Amino acid sequence: MISQVSSKDLIAKAYESGIEFFIQKPINAIEVENVIKKVNEKLEMQTKLNSIKKLFDSNKSNDESNEKNYEDKIISILQKIGILGETGSRDIVKIVMKLVENKQYKNDFTLKEVLKDYGSNTKTVEQRIRRAANVGLINLANLGIEDNLNEVFLEYSNSLYSFEQIKLEMDYIRGRSNKRGKINLKKFIEAICLYVISD
Question: Could you list the residue range(s) of the whole structural domain that residue 13 is in?
């Protein structure tokens, strides 16, 4: 602001109204030069702050994009093994996302720790996940009986599950055995985590 006003009260009101610099007439060249330098410094500082803010915002967007990508990968795996419609599939997505985000997917977790967020429902959630994973085992076994060179069968029968257990389930389905295949829930969840983080 440039003004001929010399009243301290009016100058104070001008500052209260939001001005940042006040130049009093008659204009002094040194004072104007100093004010211009300060305005320039302030603009440069604001530009730097905006750049830093954009950097953080873009990192946040990348994180959100990674989260979406992880979720898409989990859903794709569950869809391929035929359990996306199972009730426990939502729990699987939630648990795997948590483990991946916390980088806790390499033997650094127990099912009890992972399920503690569910409070008193841990047994119920574990049963839902176990049922969903078991349906996946049965689906893969049936797929292996029909076509043991099927891509999905080859990909997941020895990673999400133990091939020995898939083979037991295949024999059970064929009527060759009374024993059914069993699942290792920790291995199942850990394997999905590893698929999700791999490119």
Answer: 2-49
